[in-house]
Structure formats: structure tokens, C-alpha cells
Amino acid sequence: MLKISFKQGTILIKGNVRVPNSVWDERSESFRAPAMYYRDITTYLRESGIDFEDDALDLLPCPDLAAAYEASGKKLKLRDYQAEALISWGENGKRGVLVLPTGSGKTLTGIRAIAGCNTPALVVVPTLDLLEQWKKELEEAFSMEIGKLGGGDKKILPVTVSTYDSAYIHAETLGNRFGLIIFDEVHHLPAAGYRSIAEFSAAPCRLGLTATYEREDGLHTELNRLVGGKVYEKKVSELAGGHLAPYTIKRVSIALTDEEQKEYEKKYSVFLDYLRKTGMIMRSPQDFQKLVMKSGRDPEARKALLARNAARDLAFNSDSKIEKLREILEQHRDDRIFIFTEHNRLVHRISNSFFIPAITYRTPSKERSSILEKFREGRYRAVVTSKVLDEGIDVPEANIGIIASGTGSKRAYVQRLGRILRQKEGKEAVLYEIIAEETTETGTAKRRKEAVSTRKKPDKAEAKSQEGVSRADI
User: Fold this and answer.
1) pTM score of the predicted model
2) Domain ends where: 171, 199, 234?
């Protein structure tokens, strides 16, 4: 009789039958396939009328999760869109990605999926903050101990939360222990390395959660293979004012000082001259990456790249931006404010200029937690950060966001907007963008805004400012 088993992230098929997605493995003298195809393989064998012995799954002993959820007293009613999302996921064979805005209750949706599947579940998250948040929510929802994999802990239980890094390290041994795998912030999954978490898992049920499905590098198409593709989506504009706080976006333009503008144009022209001279066209991040690679062997390419970086640095760190930020902070003295920048240099300048606590990737975990807790309590009215708070921070008190500098990434834009959209009674959110005129920031701001608005044709002034500037964030 045909026999299938799990070994180191793969399915071994012992017998004289070749199943879909398998190849012959001389060492084991059997057909072999990535574990992610387990369900497809068993479905094929059943539908083909082929008898087989299934030893692939070795699920962790698991209590009745549906009953535990009902008995916990923490059962929350799903909002209409959350219920619709889970129905769409179920109709797709309990596979696929739900795209829901930050603050719309993705965690609750995931918890209900776990209760509904009633099988051992692994939740994979990108940050330690999210690891702790999910663990706390799951413990309250099921009134049971939740496993933790990451941050120095390795405790595998029927419901376990893991970081992407830890799940990647242990993928070969954990791949057949869970019937459901949930990828929070699933846009991280297609990255090289992380995708093996899904490939080495035999979990028949797969759920991806994100506010931002697309990736600038186009790798989000891999999610069709790894998780099941997009099955449901709600945009920020559809939920704002109802399930999310109403919001306003204010674009504030500033002019560089005469000296800054002169220096900016001088440096940026070096970059543009190189593009014209070589015929290089920047239409995507991949095109820009080619220039970066070329700069390693071509002195002229390196000179152009350094000039471009220096020009952007001038635009990001203009004295005029600091003065405009001062005005906005004065205007919102009684509000709770997140300030976002692209690089740490501006983070520290703002922190030192206005005595505002800063959080960067270098900030120790305890200090970071302390800053955010004081921010929630109102002891700090503002926090300035680079990219580290784009995901996984739940601070309903925040109602003002200020993008002092940033890329054209739509994903980052939606995440930053989401930081101030969590619902709280009487709350109205405002997101400011401080944009340096007559620099590439004009085009950059326009591109990222497409994430929450219908695209329109640029006016003549915008078109001129973007002349020679690519779709990549150059």
C-alpha cells in the first residue's frame, strides 16, 4: 500500500505512484514533495481511488478549542466585515489572505479562525511586540497557556505564537505538528528564507492577515502558492468613520532655504546627468537595485548614487521642516502624536530639538515598552520614530501622525496611517505630511497617497517636479 510520511519539511511518498508536485528522490527511494502540498497530495489520492496510509501529520494533542473559546467569557461578536472575511476564507477551503486595515480587528478574526478550525494552530508574527500582543489575546480568548517561540523562549503548545525568524529556524521540525498556520503581516512571508516556513509546513489550513498585500518588489504573487492568495479585502476609506476613527490627510509643503535648494539641485543634477549619459531608466525598485550593484564596480555610478543620497538627505533634514514641525506640535499641544521619519538622523534631531522620546531599531526592548506605556498614559504626548513602529503597535490614544520624511512605499504609508486610526470615542485623526517643494519628495508623497485615494493625473507643476524621476523611490 502507498504510504506518505513527513520528513524535514517534505512529504515522502513510498510506492509506485507519482503524485502532483513530487520528484523522485534517489536517497530515500521514494517520491518527495514540499510539505505544503500535503493536502493537495491526499486529495489527489482520494479522488483517484488510491488506497494509502497517512503518517504525515503528527498533530500536537489539543483540547477542544471551540469549547474553550465559548467557555472563556471573552467571545466577542464579529463585525460584519470580519464575518464576511471568514466566510470567504472558508469558501476557499480555509486558505488565503484577508486584507484588512490596521485597527480593524485582524487579531480577533484570527482567533475566530482558530476556534472554528479547532485544530493545533501556529501563529507567525514579525516582531516581539506582536508576539506578546497575540499571546496575551490568545490567553484571554481560550483561558489556556499559549506557547511562545522567539525572544529566547521555546515552548511549543497546541496554540503557539512564533516570530518569523524562529519559525524559519524550526520549520523542519514543526511542519507537521499544526493543522492551522496563521501568518500575521503576511507580506513578510515571500521574503527569501521566510517562504520556507510555509513550504515546510503540512498544515492543511492557512490564513494570511495584512493591511498591505502588495509588495514593491512584486513578490506578493508568491502568496498565491504559499497561502492561497487574496480572498477578501477592505480598504481604510471603507471603514473610516465607522469601525475606524474618521481621518483627514493634510499635505504641508515647505521650501528649502536658498542655500539648501542650491545645494540640492547641484547634487541631484549629478545623479540625473549620469542616468541620461548611460540611458538608465528607473521604473521600479529592481532598476534602482541594478544601479546600486553597478556602483560597486563603476566609480561614476558610485558618484551618482552618493550625490543622489546627499540630495535626499538635504530634503529630508531641511531646517524648514523643523520649523514647520514646531508649528504643528504647538497647534496640537493637547493631542497624542506619532512622528515618522525615514532615517535615524532626523529622529535624533527632532528628539533633541523638542525633547521628544525616540524609538529606533537600537532602542532596547524595555526602554521601548516604557516609552510606549508612558505615551498611552499621557505622560509623553509625542514619540518620534523611524520605521520600527510601522507594524504591531496598538495605541488607540494616538490621534495625530506626522510624516516628516518617508519613501513612496504604499505599504509603509497605510501602516503609518493605521497607527492613528484605532477607534476611541470622540476621536478624529489627522495625518500630516511635510513635503519639501521642488524635490523628489513631491512625487514620492503623491505615489504613497495612491494607497488610500483614487489616482488622478498630475497637474503641470507636479509633472514638472517629477521630470526625470522614476517610479522607483529614487
Assistant:
1) 0.81
2) 234
